[in-house]
Amino acid sequence: xxxxxxxxxxxxxxxxxxxxxxxxxxxxxxxxxxxxxxxxxxxxxxxxxxxxxxxxxxxxxxxxxxxxxxxxxxxxxxxxxxxxxxxxxxxxxxxxxxxxxxxxxxxxxxxxxxxxxxxxxxxxxxxxxxxxxxxxxxxxxxxxxxxxxxxxxxxxxxxxxxxxxxxxxxxxxxxxxxxxxxxxxxxxxxxxxxxxxxxxxxxxxxxxxxxxxxxxxxxxxxxxxxxxxxxxxxxxxxxxxxxxxxxxxxxxxxxxxxxxxxxxxxxxxxxxxxxxx
Length: 277
Hints:
The protein has helices at 7-23, 33-40, 85-96, 123-131, 135-150, 166-175, 213-216, 219-228, 245-248, 257-275, and strands at residues 46-53, 56-63, 71-77, 100-104, 155-164, 181-187, 204-209, 233-238. By secondary structure, it is of the alpha/beta class. A hairpin with a 2-residue loop joins strand 1 (46-53) and strand 2.
């Protein structure tokens, strides 16, 4: 009889093998080629789709889990860097846990020649463009992506949102706007305006770095405000981890071991919370 490793353990073992190989050539490897390599090795079905609302079209990356039953849908909101190879790899990680993951490129149409994230010349240009996105357009894009995922034959009608960095803040904000969410997961993102918290229906789970005071310093007041609004907010702070530890924790060039530990612990927590959703 074959022994099957738990999802998280199997994924971590596979990543360790890939990372060991990539570390040998990291000095000659462009940024995030390691993430692209992991993504290309995935056994899961991936595809690009276009979701539309009004006259706007948004490119979105979807990853399906290898399961025999219908699955919940998860909307993944990318970092301030746009829909990078790492963001797509993270979508694959979550799909490995048993969820349909849709990751819209919120820069769709805003890049050079009408392109998206990949059309920008460099990371700084993409960051500037993300910072300038219209809030209402972002919400409409997320709604279009969520609605599209929920209509998939393989979807079971349940919906969650997860975001990282800039996307973490948008995930928290989206929880104030979308009433059919089962959960919102906020990775090192700022909270929404206090007055909007009363509109939140889903539980909000936070993941923060201990060495990320710019964001983590907001946690105590956010706990107070969410409690006053009668909403569930469950934050965890990972000692020694910096901002972006989910990405940094698997980057072969990472020198802060706390990032690696935080990523591993956060993945286990995320998987457990998703199962209880």
